[in-house]
């Protein structure tokens, strides 16, 4: 899981049909991101472009609720501001909290996580426990295999993976709510459409809207990376999605990868990017494996913190 990276913490708030996952980064963590899906629901991602001024990231928020769920980041900003964390300004610290959301409104009956739920997930993360996986947090209402029709979808979820190479650690967390199927390294479908063979891809009329699938990834490392190098790591995270999702990055998906670097060790960039690709693919596969064995789960953490 992503928490294998020293100093990185993660936690969830899980509701009946949706949820929030928060990744807290150590002070000084450099961050960037890459958006490749056609229908993203995001907040503060423009700030993560290598050419933008701010280098550091304090937390990343992943949520259900589609664009409504981006409000969960307000609660995480409140949580960090109470602790004095953020970019120094003349008016006090301003926390940098990028966020992204998956569309789970059909599965959740329209439930929308908000600031209180984001705050509760941050409190869970602060405790430093190993976060649960499966149908929890932002993966609570996730589904996969919708590309051959929504009625044939399968449960998605949240998964993690990590890899060590000497002192280097790379960890990833993935919320898999993909339009496509999740496939293993051998191409075998691990979780996907149950449509009959005579149902082709993307049947007409299209039974889904242009923003009803998304896979969200946060990858972290203890390597020292510049912001532009973090951007390259985020690109490699998408290579991991291309290996584990079929099809990936459709115009109906809002796929995004965040990359965080805490700066504790030196690392060879290209070797690091190789590990990122492998770890993200493993995290996506773990999401559906853990979803198959985990229950629905209720609320972890009180919305009032």
Written account of the structure:
By secondary structure, this protein is α+β, with helices and mostly antiparallel strands. The protein has one domain: L-amino peptidase D-ALA esterase/amidase. Helix content is 23%, strand content 26%. The chain is built from five helices and 15 strands. The protein has helices at residues 72-82, 105-108, 115-126, 227-244, 269-293, and strands at 9-14, 19-24, 30-35, 42-43, 59-63, 99-101, 143-144, 154-155, 157-165, 168-177, 181-183, 189-191, 214-223, 245-246, 256-265. It has a five-stranded mixed β-sheet with strand order 1-2-5-6-4, with helices on one face. It has a five-stranded mixed β-sheet with strand order 3-15-13-10-9, with helices on one face. β5 (59-63), α1 (72-82) and β6 (99-101) form a beta-alpha-beta unit. α1 crosses α3 (115-126) and α4 crosses α5. It is globular, with a radius of gyration of 18 Å. The relative contact order is 0.23.
Give a short summary of the structure.
The protein is an alpha+beta fold and 305 residues long. Helices cover 23% and strands 26% of the residues. Helix 4 packs across helix 5.
